[in-house]
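sorry to bug you again but im stuck and you know this stuff better than me. what follows is a protein written twice so to speak, once as letters and once as structure tokens for the fold. mainly i need to know what kind of three dimensional shape the backbone takes. anything you notice is useful, everything is just below:
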Amino acid sequence: MDGVIVDSNPLHRIVWEEYNLRNGLETTEAMQRRMYGKRNDDIIRDFYGSDLSPDRVFSLGAAKEALYRERLRPQLESLLVPGIRRFLQAHATVPKAVATNAEPANLNFVLDETGLRRFFLAAIDGHQVQNPKPHPELFLKAADCLNVAPENCLVFEDSHTGVQAGLAAGMTVVGLSTTHPDLPGASLVIPDFNAPELGAFLASG
């Protein structure tokens, strides 16, 4: 979702910096790079300490994501990855799922506020699996929900952990360079869904 449906990672960076500052923590560039593609509880433990209780991890993460949604709401439509609506409409009959490490509230917010939920048969967040990306469990669960064999699935990903998860699941991966210019392992890397080479790639296989 993040970096594929909505180009939200720049905003996540801003919000992490603001939120961490409120909690007396300076956000370094290395911290920002480490958060890409990770589940929120893993980010919180990385930033605030691995010895935090589960309740404390949840409360810190929930507060940060509430601030993120507050900042996202007025600019959500403008942050949609270019061409995503047209692409989903053009492939409306193809079974699709969203499989994201994101918080459930963020997933529901994006799908409901944009009206894109109708294009997906399943929406799976990082808390519906025991192992988040880069483990393949999230994508395998999505394939199961769609009743499609993993080897017949195409994954769109913007993060290194997401590409790793897709490949580990035995799926073909198309990379979106919204977050990283290089996505090793992806069969195709495109800037957005308006890329003309995407149509040729889909038609070829």
Q: What stands out?
A: The mean pLDDT is 95. Residues 54-72 form the longest helix (19 residues). The CA atoms of residues 15 and 71 lie 8 Å apart.
